[in-house]
Write a structure and sequence with these properties.
The complex is a heterodimer of chains A (636) and B (142). With 636 residues, chain A is α/β, with parallel strands linked by helices. Chain A has 25 helices and 17 strands. By secondary structure, chain B is α+β, with helices and mostly antiparallel strands. Classes of the chains: A alpha/beta (636), B alpha+beta (142). Bound molecules: flavin mononucleotide and iron/sulfur cluster (2 copies). The site of one iron/sulfur cluster has 14 residues of chain A, from α24.
């Protein structure tokens, strides 16, 4: 080896075959080698033992060492490399071992199984069947994917090129069948046929409301006008959501191509991408994409020699949540203040500058080339009957593997949160998941097995929304979370209509006093009443859905609200004003650490004597709670 | 590039399919793909990129290594992420690739051809573009 002190990977592993050649920075026998060449590499197998937090609690470390030992004992240590990996998800079925290059997936592996795996898989090159993960298990009964495609937890249509191509290189997009859908539409399909294909695919808007995309295009297509427009809504104001940003950063051409197809279909020659200025990298990559497409003749005049013109421009938004609402967005695009206007008329007949306009979300557009290219039948075979295709979610919160996930509609929340997300961090208990951001609601443990679709999430009192998915555990307080979203809505309300302007403020005031222990009898009734009024009377869906997080948490966690109001208690300890830190006399050894850490300070006590906290001065920072090594400080 | 027609676009695609740098097709070259979306860059993807470039130069293996950037691989928890395909080895995605890990990747994974402990992540999804192609018999490795 190269002489440096090396961490685990060089320790118990068999000799690295080509290592010696590399010492001293000599030219290594690497690149020119044909696949499979290089000492032992061809025959070598790899055992990847999940070293994620979940699997570790399943003794994955013991398993890891047992595998090494067996490889040594059975004399095959040069034929296998055994390493630990990051979390694979599927923590419930851990520990997981993945075999490469055969891609076999073993689950529930115990240290005692090591011998069988090494003797079977490695020495005899035969799988240990009883441990192999059955693919069917991964498929929920409700989830459909195209026949023959094996299901890998996720299924990526929108994100097909993210992580695969260089987003700043149009040639790579083209190599991945990019702009083939545009060519197909322009030269082999009439606008009516494009619409028919979209309608048959069942594609619905991914911006939140789920309106059928084909119908939206058709309504705009048939609207008579000398000028029409296409708009891509990349405002993405939902806190915790970044699906659209990632899509544009990773694959900007998918949106450009779809918008050109849309222009041809509805008869628009001009398009705008409305994107928030806080997304500089996405804007930069989109600019590059548009310029490259123009150079290639894929945008501009006479696209691909078809006689069809379509120009695309970027417009920056200032990042107001309300500007994601389509009518407000168009006012903002026109140079006016971004305020919603009543519908109808709908954008399809009177949109930007009162001209017929298609406005779609980034993710909606990114689906379109695949629908055109692979056909509506293929697309409709994915997902559920009424919600076809996939959905991208930004999985965040108290989850082990946060990230961007794309799953077929019909996948259950449990699969997303536990199989893909790996479950809750730190072994805490799942409390709920917020979908739809400030417009959505909380979904609790009892509904985890609901298959995701527009209908099912609405039925559960939440909504699909744009794809933010925030997971909460027992340390999150539902009142505090509702207050956070209401605060957001107070800030983001444009103030045009009274129900939203006044209602969000009133609801915030009540939520705030509940979190401070000043809640009054009847507050819940008031919240519900104001909430219902706002939902009915607001002009746009910002106000129309602002009460949702509060109403849904009241529905599911009424007892927790009541605890705050009656007992001035917050069981999760999030509501600072209601928390009380105290020191247990029988556990305190009088080390004095907490007193030194306390910033006020308000902890006193003799050396080696029991310490006490002066409740009148305590600012509830929790420093004493985390600093005590003897568990003497308790939070209640 | 001059403005294209459908015919020239299709021709161009056929050429690019064979030549664009990708880990999806077998190649005699080592291919490194670095996730450089906002989250990757914020987590230090540029530093990882620079470190790998430097190490590759130090080993004198530039000619046999292709490097490119890409968008988000979806594994936000473990950014920066780097995918590596070395001929004769399984193609893997590494997470939490700090500059220090990046340097080790070049030496251990590319030069010495051993996987690095503790950083490999599961691939989130199969590639649907290549998948359909594979079933049509055009080749594609997974
Ligand atoms: C307050 C508010 C904010 C919205 N923000 C967004 C957004 O950021 N992105 C988006 O695509 N749609 C957003 N919408 C939905 C849009 O009004 C519109 O329905 C959507 O862009 C239509 O595209 P789709 O049919 O492709 O979903 C928002 C709606 C409301 C009421
Ligand atoms: S509901 Fe709120 S955001 Fe929408 S128009 Fe009324 S005040 Fe403005
Ligand atoms: S840190 Fe814990 S043990 Fe030490 S004085 Fe404070 S309460 Fe007592």
């Amino acid at each position: 080896m190269t002489g440096e002190k090396e961490v685990a990977e060089s320790r118990p592993i068999g000799a690295a075959p080509v290592g010696a050649a590399a010492s001293g920075g000599m030219v290594a026998p690497v690149g020119a080698a044909a696949p499979g060449a290089g000492a032992a590499a061809g025959a070598r197998q790899y055992l990847l033992v999940c070293g994620g937090e979940g699997c570790q609690s399943w003794k994955s470390e013991e398993l890891f060492l047992a595998l090494h030992q067996q490889a040594e004992t059975l004399g095959v240590k040069n034929e296998v490399q055994i390493i630990r990996t990051g979390c694979f998800g599927f923590c419930e079925k851990g520990p997981i071992v993945k075999v490469m290059p055969s891609e076999t997936f073993y689950c529930g592996v115990k240290p005692e199984d090591a011998k069988e795996i090494i003797a079977g898989r490695i020495a005899a090159k035969k799988d240990v069947e009883r441990l192999v993960y059955k693919k069917e298990e991964r498929l929920a009964a409700t989830t459909r994917v195209p026949e023959g495609a094996f299901y890998n937890k996720q299924f990526r249509i929108v994100l097909r090129n993210c992580g695969v191509i260089d987003p700043e290189n149009i040639d790579e997009y083209i190599a991945r069948d990019g702009y083939a859908a545009l060519g197909k539409a322009l030269f082999t399909m009439s606008p009516l046929e494009v619409v028919a294909e979209l309608r048959a695919s069942g594609l619905r808007g991914r911006g939140g409301a789920g309106f059928p995309t084909g119908l939206k295009w058709e309504l705009t297509r048939v609207a008579p006008s000398d000028q029409k427009y296409v708009i891509c809504n990349a405002d993405e104001g939902d806190p915790g959501a970044y699906m659209d940003r990632a899509t544009i950063e990773g694959d900007p051409h998918s949106v450009v191509e779809a918008m050109a197809i849309c222009g041809y279909t509805v008869g628009a020659t001009k398009g705008y991408v409305y994107i928030r200025a806080e997304y500089p990298l996405a804007i930069e990559r989109l600019k590059i994409a548009i310029r490259q497409a123009e150079e290639y003749g894929l945008l501009g005049k006479n696209i691909l020699g078809s006689g069809v013109d379509f120009e695309l421009e970027i417009r920056l938004g200032a990042g107001a949540f309300v500007c994601g609402e389509e009518t407000a967005l168009m006012r903002s695009l026109e140079g006016n203040r971004g305020m919603p206007v009543p519908k109808p008329p709908y954008p399809a007949t009177s949109g930007l500058w009162k001209k017929p306009t298609v406005i779609n979300n980034v993710e909606t557009f990114a689906n379109v080339p695949m629908v055109i290219l692979k056909g509506s039948k293929w697309f409709a075979s994915i997902g559920t009957e009424k919600s076809t295709g996939t959905k991208v979610f930004a999985l965040t919160g108290k989850i082990r593997n946060s990230g961007l996930v794309e799953v077929p509609m019909g996948t259950t929340l449990r699969e997303i949160i536990f199989d893909i997300g790996g479950g809750i961090r730190g072994g805490r208990k799942f409390k709920g998941v917020q979908t739809g951001g400030p417009s959505g609601g909380i979904i609790t443990a009892k509904d985890l097995d609901a298959p995701i679709s527009y209908e099912s999430l609405t039925a559960l009192g939440s909504m699909m929304g744009s794809g933010g998915m925030i997971v909460m555990d027992e340390d999150d307080c539902v009142v505090d979370v509702s207050k956070f979203y209401m605060d957001f809505c107070v800030d983001e309300s444009c103030g045009k209509c009274a129900p939203c302007r006044i209602g969000t403020n009133q609801m915030y005031t009540i939520l705030d006093r509940i979190t401070k222990g000043n809640g009054e009898e009847g507050d819940l009734g008031k919240l519900e009443k104001i909430g219902q009024a706002m939902t009915k009377a607001s002009l746009c869906m910002l106000g129309g859905s602002a009460a949702n997080p509060t109403l849904s948490t009241i529905r599911h966690f009424r007892d927790e609200y009541m605890e705050h109001i009656h007992d001035h208690k917050c069981r999760s300890g999030s509501c600072k004003a209601l928390v009380r830190f105290t020191i247990l006399a029988d556990k305190c050894i009088g080390c004095g650490l907490c007193a030194r850490r306390c910033p006020v300070p308000c902890i006193s006590g003799e050396k080696k004597g029991v310490h006490v906290i002066d409740q009148a001065k305590c600012v509830k920072c929790g420093e004493c709670f985390v600093s005590c090594k003897f568990g003497a400080v308790v939070k209640a | 590039m001059a403005k294209m027609t459908v015919a020239t676009l299709n021709e161009h695609r056929a050429t690019m399919k064979k030549t664009y740098p990708t880990t999806l097709q077998p190649s005699p070259l080592t291919r490194i793909v670095v996730g450089m979306g906002t989250c990757g860059i914020a987590a230090g993807a540029q530093e990882a990129w620079d470190e790998m470039k430097k190490s590759i130069a130090e080993f004198g293996i530039e000619a046999s290594v292709q490097m490119k950037k890409t968008g988000c691989m979806g594994l936000c928890q473990v950014e920066p992420t780097v995918e590596i395909a070395v001929p004769g080895m399984p193609t893997v995605i590494y997470g939490k690739v700090t500059a220090e890990v990046a340097k080790r990747l070049v030496r251990k994974h590319i030069v010495e051809k051993t996987l690095i402990d503790g950083h490999i992540q599961d691939r989130p999804a199969i590639d649907i573009v290549a998948y359909v192609k594979a079933s049509e018999g055009e080749g594609g490795t997974r």
